User: Which sequence fits this backbone?
């Protein structure tokens, strides 16, 4: 999908460009001044990319995808907005534990008579 026209090639409108571009920047739109307007626009694009990729992409993959589409923003901003939107990438699950001890049975005897208790320290060392 094509990004919104106002988000292409530069930072989200009014959210800050490079220092070299500041004299040539167009006047700020009052609706986008401050974090609220910029975050709302970037949040919409994050949601679009996340849904386009089967809701499995995390911030680590959404951020470069936005950059490829010409939508610039910091990775930390993408992470923060994803938390606020309540979306996350798919995580790999924990390894399945197949053996669980049964507390009703007595454990096998230690035939080697091992001693795992700690010995008292000697000296200052």
Assistant:
């Amino acid at each position: 999908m094509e990004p919104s026209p106002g988000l292409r090639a530069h930072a989200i409108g009014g959210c800050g460009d490079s220092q070299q571009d500041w004299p040539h920047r167009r006047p700020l739109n009052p609706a986008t001044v401050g974090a609220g307007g910029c975050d709302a626009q970037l949040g919409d694009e994050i949601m679009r990319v996340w849904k386009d990729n089967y809701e499995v992409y995390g911030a680590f993959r959404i951020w470069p995808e936005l950059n490829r589409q010409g939508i610039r923003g910091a990775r930390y901003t993408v992470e923060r907005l994803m938390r606020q939107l309540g979306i996350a990438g798919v995580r790999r699950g924990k390894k399945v534990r197949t053996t669980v001890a049964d507390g009703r049975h007595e454990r096998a005897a230690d035939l080697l008579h091992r001693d795992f208790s700690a010995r008292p320290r000697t000296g200052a060392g």
